[in-house]
Structure to design on (236 residues):
């Protein structure tokens, strides 16, 4: 009777001495996350006197409006559509000034009878600061900073605004779709450019910032502004 018991014990001992069960795999450590390196960017802003130029000393209203509008829409840093629509889909009609000539409406009309306009607001003591921007991402650019000022481009209005009671009055049902530069919470420039804040101490909230790809374009725009607003002071 002992032999079967001995055999059973030997069998149990043999099983215990066999290959151990595989151990659970050790958890892998997550890959190390490299800290983000801030983008390296060098920027210089240099005051540079503008040289206001005009193709004609007696440029007419339509020529001035078209010159400014075409130059604005050709710039690559703006986040806007209305200037292009005004330039390509609308025709110039006339200027409308406020009595003090510190507010200007450049009026346009498309084939369907819709009104569009470029709305200027420049106080009598407004100034234009001329700058050259040297930026490792944007390259070389040229700026005019207007202060205090506001500039808006509007399309798809039922009718042009009229001056009444010391202000512009717009159509109550369809005043138009606006895009503005200056005195607005939305930047007129594309995301990622860091404009207009990139201009540093030369920029204040509410300024109109006109940014151009070349010195010639900036000086031509300065010429238009000098013709429209003779009291505008250019700095430096």
């Amino acid at each position: 009777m002992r032999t079967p018991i001995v055999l059973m014990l030997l069998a149990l001992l043999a099983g215990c001495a066999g290959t151990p069960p595989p151990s659970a795999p050790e958890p892998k450590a997550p890959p190390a996350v490299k800290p983000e390196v801030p983008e390296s960017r060098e920027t210089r802003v240099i005051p540079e006197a503008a040289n206001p130029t005009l193709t004609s000393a007696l440029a007419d209203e339509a020529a001035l409006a078209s010159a400014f509008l075409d130059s604005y829409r050709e710039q690559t840093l703006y986040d806007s559509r209305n200037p292009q629509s005004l330039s390509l889909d609308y025709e110039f009609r006339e200027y409308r000034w406020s009595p003090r000539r510190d507010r200007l409406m450049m009026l346009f009309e498309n084939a369907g009878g819709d009104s569009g306009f470029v709305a200027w607001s420049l106080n009598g003591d407004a100034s234009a600061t001329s700058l050259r921007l040297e930026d490792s991402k944007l390259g070389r650019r040229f700026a005019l900073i207007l202060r205090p000022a506001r500039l808006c481009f509007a399309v798809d209005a039922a009718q042009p605004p009229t001056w009444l009671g010391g202000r512009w009055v717009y159509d109550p049902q369809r005043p138009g779709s606006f895009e503005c530069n200056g005195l607005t919470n939305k930047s007129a420039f594309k995301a990622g450019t860091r404009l207009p804040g990139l201009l540093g101490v030369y920029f204040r909230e509410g300024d109109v910032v006109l940014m151009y790809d070349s010195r010639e374009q900036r000086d031509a725009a300065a010429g238009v502004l000098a013709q429209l607003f003779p009291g505008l002071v250019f700095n430096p």
